[in-house]
Amino acid sequence: MEWLRLMFKSTYVRMLEEENARLRAENRAFLNSLLGTVGFPPIESPEPTTPVEYERLRKRSWPQIQRQREQQSL
Questions:
Q1: Is the entire prediction scored with pTM above 0.90?
Q2: Which three-class secondary structure state does DSSP give residue 31?
Q3: What mean pLDDT is reported for the chain?
């Protein structure tokens, strides 16, 4: 039934939904990056429900990398 719904949905609407999901993922990553820089844990939010799938990449800030290296050297 999902493919039938997608078949009848216009290309423009689908493109807008994919762009919306991409921007939400970027905003979530940016917010988590800023929070990680100041030392707060990332905010977990629901994954996008659109057909576009994003891999969750956790990038560490330089202070986090430095702390990890200091702990490993002890």
A1: no
A2: helix
A3: 77
